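tool_call: predict_structure(chain=1)
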Amino acid sequence: MRIEKVVIIGRGALGIMYGEALAREIGFREVVFLADAERVHLYRSQHVISNGRTCPFRYETPASYRDTADLVLFAVKCTQLDEAIKLARPVTGPETVIVSVLNGIVSEEMIEKGLGKGRVVWSVAQGMDALKRGTTLVYSHIGELCLGLPAGREQNKPALLALEEFFTRVKLPFVHEQDIMRRMWAKWMLNVGVNQTVMVARGDFSTVQKPGPVRDRMIGAMREVQALA
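tool_result:
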């Protein structure tokens, strides 16, 4: 199982960041953004800029792609995941590797339910600072992808090995996580505690670093996640 053809669903900050990183290694023809016909028409009329570089991405619908992807990368919002799974179904095969960079702890199970078991690799995207405005992306750190499998998913190991070989080949930073579920819960705890608190307080990340009620609220939110885990 060797990954050569990549399909990405979702052209947000992470979709563009990973799409460009992969395309500059394996070629822009081999990295395809999959979308419905309306979005494809819009995307083809736009110019994407990443750190000052033009990204001549390829856009296709499931019907126009006419191929089977070696790797499908989901980079949509959670509310768009069901639609994204339907889009991906025609371009996936029995050996297609699937990875999600969505926040949270449920996207992999949702994808397995929609596309079948044995091909999904659990992952956490962390350490990046990508900021997207319109079709322009700016970042200084690409971060890393934490990859692993939960207990009882031995049938997914070939997919994990293929993905790690591919990321090594294209120089995309990743780490192999022995306890991927702990890493995923930790990232979600951080998202829940920091992001929601900063939004409610109308502050920034420095706001929750100062002792006081806002920081206490952040810690309380994190403890709620700990109780669920």
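agent: The two ends are 34 Å apart (CA to CA). Proceeding to next step.
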